[in-house]
């Protein structure tokens, strides 16, 4: 019997994933990852999101209901290095990071998979809404989930072939409603537990406040400037802004204006009109190819998503060398944001992706 370690966050999706795999004949072990940094129990409970004390207790209760062993593994160091520190450094450099992508790649997979394989497991599994398939070319790829409303492949594009070959995602074949119904029929205590929405380590959404607490030296206030260099006012520091932002600028220019660029070298935030937020080209780096090994010097038309909530847009992608690629969109897209991921799709499969530069 093959053994699978299920990352149990205490939510309904990972709970049902454990049951589905148990039903399929796997030997299932539940693991909850401890990543929150505060040692004070009250703070952990209040701020821990999907990884606080209540999450551990919910996961433990479900494991008991399913009759499977449950363990808590400490990944605080990995989470601090690969997620929290990365998040802070990207904002200080004028970019807008995606901590969930970093957490998936380096904590939920690299760290958890390594430890699980060391314990004799054959696979790890999560409650993500995505499907893992092996293609005719021999490569492993993610396929979009059965429900577009919950598809989570965007945040998983950076997984490696080795990681995918040891990954199971049973929830991807179902809708959220079906998953909740299964949990209810099983009598699981988390059947109607609300989904976690916020970044788990910043539950109050105050990114700048978090960065100030983490770093003694942060970017100082500077100038808002127009695209032609005219000074329009003063900003609070570049960590407070992201491309496409309109609210919170406190500029009275008699018309709606938006952030169109952040320049950390000169400590400037560039302001423009609504049309200035659109572009038809982007450059990305840190490429990770999934369904294919690369473009082999050829251009390819794909559907590209530039943020998690983006529906996707047609573009022509070509590799530039040095791990970079250029994407030219058939129609301009709004708020291409440095630091976010661009993910390429073809026929419901993730071809690959990279980090927008």
Concise structural overview:
This protein is α/β, with parallel strands linked by helices. It has helices at residues 12-23, 41-47, 53-66, 76-92, 99-118, 161-165, 176-186, 207-214; strands spanning 3-7, 27-34, 70-74, 123-125, 130-134, 140-144, 167-168, 222-226, 231-235, 258-263, 268-272, 278-289, 300-305, 313-321, 324-334, 341-346, 349-356. The chain contains eight helices and 17 strands.
Overview of the molecule:
By secondary structure, this protein is of the alpha/beta class. It has eight helices and 17 strands. α4 (76-92) runs antiparallel to α5 (99-118). The chain is globular, with a radius of gyration of 22 Å.
Essential attributes:
357 residues, alpha/beta, six-stranded antiparallel beta barrel, five-stranded parallel beta sheet, 8 helices, globular
pLDDT under 50 segments (min length 5)?
41-48
Secondary-structure element pattern, one letter each: EHEHHEHHEEEHEHHEEEEEEEEEE
**Portion in helices:** 25-40%
Envelope shape: globular
What number is the mean pLDDT? 93
**Mind summarizing the main beta sheet?**
6 strands, antiparallel, barrel
The helix tally amounts to 8
- Oligomer type: single chain
The percentage of residues in β strands lies in 25-35%
Structural class: alpha/beta
Task: Please give the number of β-strands.
Answer: 17
- Give Rg in angstroms: 22 Å
Order of adjacent strands in the largest pleated sheet: 12-15-14-13-16-17
Q: Distance N terminus to C terminus?
A: 46 Å
């Amino acid at each position: 019997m093959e053994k699978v370690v299920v990352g149990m966050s205490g939510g309904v999706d990972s709970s049902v994933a454990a049951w589905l795999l148990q039903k399929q004949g796997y030997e299932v072990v539940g693991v909850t990852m401890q990543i929150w940094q505060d040692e004070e129990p009250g703070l952990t409970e209040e701020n821990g999101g999907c990884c606080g004390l209540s999450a551990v207790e919910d996961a433990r209760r479900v494991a008991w209901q399913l009759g499977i062993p449950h363990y808590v593994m400490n990944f605080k160091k990995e989470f601090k290095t690969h997620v929290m520190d990365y998040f802070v450094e990207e904002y200080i450099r004028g970019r807008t990071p995606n901590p969930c992508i970093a957490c998936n790649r380096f904590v939920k997979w690299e760290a958890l998979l390594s430890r699980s394989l060391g314990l004799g497991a054959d696979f790890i599994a999560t409650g993500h809404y995505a499907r893992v398939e092996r293609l005719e070319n021999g490569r492993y790829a993610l396929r979009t989930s059965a429900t577009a409303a919950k598809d989570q492949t965007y945040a998983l594009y950076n997984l490696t072939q080795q990681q995918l070959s040891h990954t199971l995602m049973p929830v991807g074949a179902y809708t959220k409603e079906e998953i909740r119904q299964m949990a209810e029929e099983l009598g699981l205590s988390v059947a109607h537990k609300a989904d976690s929405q916020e970044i788990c380590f910043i539950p109050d959404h105050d990114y700048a406040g978090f960065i100030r607490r983490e770093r003694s030296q942060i970017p100082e206030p500077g100038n808002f400037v127009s695209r032609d260099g005219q000074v329009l006012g003063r900003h609070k520091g570049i960590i407070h802004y992201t491309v496409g932002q309109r609210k919170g600028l406190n500029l009275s220019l008699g018309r709606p204006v938006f952030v169109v660029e952040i320049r950390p070298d000169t400590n400037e935030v560039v302001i423009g009109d609504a049309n200035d937020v659109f572009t038809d080209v982007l450059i990305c780096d840190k490429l990770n190819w999934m369904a294919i090994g690369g473009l082999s010097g050829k251009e390819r038309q794909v559907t590209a998503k530039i943020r998690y909530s983006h529906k996707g847009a047609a573009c022509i992608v070509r590799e530039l060398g040095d791990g970079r690629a250029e994407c030219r969109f058939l129609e301009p897209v709004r708020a291409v944001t440095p630091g976010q991921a661009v993910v390429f799709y073809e026929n419901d499969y993730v071809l690959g992706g990279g980090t927008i530069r």
